[in-house]
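Hi V.,

You were right to ask for the full record rather than a summary. Here it is.
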Amino acid sequence: MSTDPQTHQSSERGTHSMSTTLPKVAWIGLGIMGSPMSENLIKAGYEVTGYTLEQEKLDRLAAAGGTTAGSIAEAVADADVIVTMVPASPQVEAIAYGPDGILENARSGALLIDMSSITPQTSIDLAAAAKDKGVRALDAPVSGGEAGAVEAVLSIMVGGEQADFDEARPIFEALGKTIVLCGPHGSGQTVKAANQLIVAVNIQACAEAVVFLEKSGVDLEAALNVLNGGLAGSTVLTRKKDNFLNRDFKPGFRIDLHHKDMGIVTDAARNVGAALPVGAVVAQLVASLRAQGDGGLDHSALLRAVERLSGAQV
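Predicted structure:
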């Protein structure tokens, strides 16, 4: 049998039903994104042991066929691959470092895939610390929101070594559709920061268009449908059209998290000398929406900020 890693990977991809041939996965963080993503790995035949702080999320994982752990140390002890999906850099550092953290308790040779959206520097530092412990690391943030996670059509932007990326690819293929190695450690996070800039500006433009159309007395649904069929169309408009029409701001991606991400991209841009004039304005609009108590709403709630600026009481 060939020992070529590429051949090995492709043969593994075709045998997801034979769970013994698949790496054991530990999953840390079972929130809006982490829960459906871990369930998609279970559906693909992976043995998944999960840990998170909320008992109901652990119950959900168990109901989907996963195993629950009582601590990070317990979850990662036997894992070949450890996936983390938590809100921000402080949480990544909290679960990775210290005596009860991932790096102290993972076995040598394990692969740590952090799918959180954090600062590029946090990912670079984590990869260096992991290397000292004999653990390989990839930063692999995602785009696509809750719907993309549920449907396993996420875009996954990865930073790290080619060999580690090749090994992780079958796992990524169970979670997403567009999977790209963007460069060395931290590159995935840099591309994710650019993604969040584009998404925020796009939502803001859509929100302004919605208020303009409604104040002009145009049939909003008809207008958004025709706009989405032309150059103004976007994945953002496709995904968020119903949120705008129904004023349904149940969180798929919270304003609080987009506020964090706009901080990451504006800071990273300043460090490399890139001007983000429109991005800076939208970052302030996101911050103001959060200050008005809307941080827990979906980022499509940027519409509420435009409505307030246009004289509506919301």
